[in-house]
Amino acid sequence: MAAPVGPVKFWKPGTEGPGASVSEERQSPAESSGVTVIYNPYASLSIEQQRQKLPVFKLRNHILYLVENYQTLVIVGETGCGKSTQIPQYLAEAGWTAEGRVVGVTQPRRVAAVSVAGRVADERGAVLGHEVGYCIRFDDCTDPQATRIKVKHEQRVVILKGFTETPQVLLQN
């Protein structure tokens, strides 16, 4: 281990602190431009194959069984495991969206609500706003007659209040 070169200097309160001459850390142009970069290691696979690669796929039948047999189900999983994109589709495929019922998914951020809804619409081969839609502040991209999977950005308390007034399936991310 090398010894420090030159005399050791101590910082004294009231003087310029260590590292004061270092410039501020700046955001890269990609971060400040608002462009979202999505990493998908399975981009070369078909959408169906991509869906099957997600961790939640192995639990599909188990989740559907639990939803059918229990009044409340809490699902916890890692980011990117398919909670928000796959489980609503599993419920729709199993008939939970028949007779006008809607699967609701809450997202903590507006961008997440729009991107999740877009991904689900892509996977289902649907036009965004028809079968799959999103609802964020000042922008409701849903069709009341056709939307079966709705992704909302809203405070969870407001969402839960709405679902207690009109009981439907709710997924909370």
From TrEMBL:
<dbReference type="GO" id="GO:0003724">
    <property type="term" value="F:RNA helicase activity"/>
</dbReference>
<dbReference type="GO" id="GO:0005524">
    <property type="term" value="F:ATP binding"/>
</dbReference>
<keyword id="KW-0547">Nucleotide-binding</keyword>
<dbReference type="InterPro" id="IPR027417">
    <property type="entry name" value="P-loop_NTPase"/>
</dbReference>
<dbReference type="GO" id="GO:0071013">
    <property type="term" value="C:catalytic step 2 spliceosome"/>
</dbReference>
<keyword id="KW-0378">Hydrolase</keyword>
<comment type="similarity">
    <text>Belongs to the DEAD box helicase family. DEAH subfamily.</text>
</comment>
<keyword id="KW-0067">ATP-binding</keyword>
<dbReference type="GO" id="GO:0003723">
    <property type="term" value="F:RNA binding"/>
</dbReference>
<dbReference type="GO" id="GO:0016787">
    <property type="term" value="F:hydrolase activity"/>
</dbReference>
<protein>
    <recommendedName>
        <fullName>RNA helicase</fullName>
        <ecNumber>3.6.4.13</ecNumber>
    </recommendedName>
</protein>
<keyword id="KW-0347">Helicase</keyword>
<feature type="region of interest" description="Disordered">
    <location>
        <begin position="1"/>
        <end position="29"/>
    </location>
</feature>
